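Let us practice reading a record.
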Amino acid sequence: MFADMMVVIIESCVRASVVLCAAWGLTSMMRHASAATRHFVWSCAIAGAILASALSSVGPRWSGTLPASIASTPMVLTEKSSASMPAVVAPATSIDVPEITITTPASSSAPVSTPAVDSAFVLGLAWAAGTLAVLAYALSGAIGAWLLRRSATPVHAPWVEEAQTLAEVFEIPGVIQVVESKAIAMPMVCGTWRPLIVVPPSAHEWSDERRRVVVLHEHAHIKRGVCLPQAIAQVVCAVYWFNPIVWLAARRLRVERERACDDF
């Protein structure tokens, strides 16, 4: 069971690597394209990589032949040796032989088994431990974002009304709330389904131009919906944590995300 599971994981990892390497080559040829276009390519590649496990049953499969059991070797040799020995025909004689019953201990006929470590089980355990560790790190970030939303306080200032007006101009649905938290030093967007803009307390000391640039940048995050691809990238990194290509792809996704929001 563990051997089959490891084969599926390796196959899906190879498929995901092929997709991400293709995206890497494609974006390398798109240096003059916009950052939003490159971010879209990386988002599609990340989404294709997460489907590698489902597509691992399609296409050619790896097959291997396990070696024959050692226990069956003496039986085969006995049959071959008995078949190669010449048949000896004894003369027909009539001899009365008394029946003899020999009783042996049951322990002497039982096969002696030696403990062995299953390498597939060890690899599967290591993969599960790494996956749980990465998922735990991502879950801690989600819990931290939830606590940040709970502890933040709404900001009441004229520039907040201007931020909502910009959200309406960009056709962002819903009310984008601006909150303040002492736990951060840089502005950020918190939440995927109900996003809000979190600013540090020093935002009141910023100039009007800087606040406008910050609000535009955070609105670009919300407008483009970049939080969902980043969450999918975290899942891909958790499943294929042992593959450095996946981590490099997730980093390129973050870089192109920020560039695309700056361009916006």
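A brief commentary: The two ends are 50 Å apart (CA to CA).
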